[in-house]
Design a protein that fits this description.
The complex is a heterodimer. Chain A is an all-beta fold. In chain A, 0% of the residues lie in helices and 50% in strands. By secondary structure, chain B is mainly beta. Chain B contains no helices and nine strands. Classes of the chains: A mainly beta, B mainly beta.
Chain lengths: 113, 113
């Protein structure tokens, strides 16, 4: 089945450690996105990538890093510089062409203790 | 991209129509209106989108006012499984086709028996 897979679903880390969240898609989509969601809040854009080997900062990129070495994969690293990393992280992809919807993964809930 | 305004919450009785409003008074002529919904702790799901004309699919109907400054998502026969947060988004159809998705806080719809 085609779709977007985020792993793991739940992740616990100690404060000060970097952690990488996985996002893989087999939809042959060019564009991929990372969002952060805090309790009771909407989604905020962290990073997005229009094409392989290219990515841009979203609205809240500080403390995060990404790579896009393969079309299928867009991993997000939450670094120790991110002051409040505990959140629900969502990955999405789209064809990137006009008038198409985005497809979302099921999310990773990161808890930093 | 134009901003949207939605009521924070709405209630609906099961079996009745749910009408979710969205204000996008600063929308431009080349911006589409998209609706997504997010069931608790899952990734958002695409519902429907439109430019000027009313649209209908198997999930919902989208009514856009003639001046395009507001729209209404209609779930004709709401079920308990329609309880979710509904997001209204406007997106520009750029020449390159790529556009980032920017979410607000949405409307929390509660469908009751």
């Amino acid at each position: 089945d085609g779709g977007i897979t985020q792993s793991p679903k739940y992740l616990f880390r100690k404060e000060g450690q970097n952690v990488t969240l996985s996002c893989e898609q087999n939809l042959n989509h060019d564009a991929m996105y990372w969002y952060r969601q805090d309790p009771g809040q909407g989604l905020r854009l962290i990073y997005y990538s229009q094409i392989v080997n290219d990515f841009q900062k979203g609205d809240i990129a500080e403390g995060y890093s990404v790579s896009r070495e393969k079309k299928e994969s867009f991993p997000l690293t939450v670094t120790s510089a991110q002051k409040n990393p505990t959140a629900f992280y969502l990955c999405a992809s789209s064809t990137g062409t006009v008038n198409t919807e985005a497809f979302f993964g099921q999310g990773t809930r990161l808890t930093v203790v | 991209d134009a901003k949207t305004t939605q009521p924070p919450s709405m209630d609906c009785a099961e079996g009745r129509a749910a009408n979710l409003p969205c204000n996008h008074s600063t929308i431009s002529g080349n911006e589409y209106v998209y609706w997504y919904r997010q069931i608790h702790s899952q990734g958002p799901q695409y519902i429907i989108h439109g430019l000027k004309n009313n649209e209908t699919n198997e999930m919902a109907s989208l009514i856009i006012t003639e001046d395009r400054k507001s729209s209404t998502l209609i779930l004709p026969h709401a079920t308990l499984r329609d309880t979710a947060v509904y997001y209204c988004i406007v997106r520009v159809a750029r020449l390159t086709g790529f556009q980032k998705l920017v979410f607000g806080t949405g409307t929390r719809l509660l469908v009751s028996p």
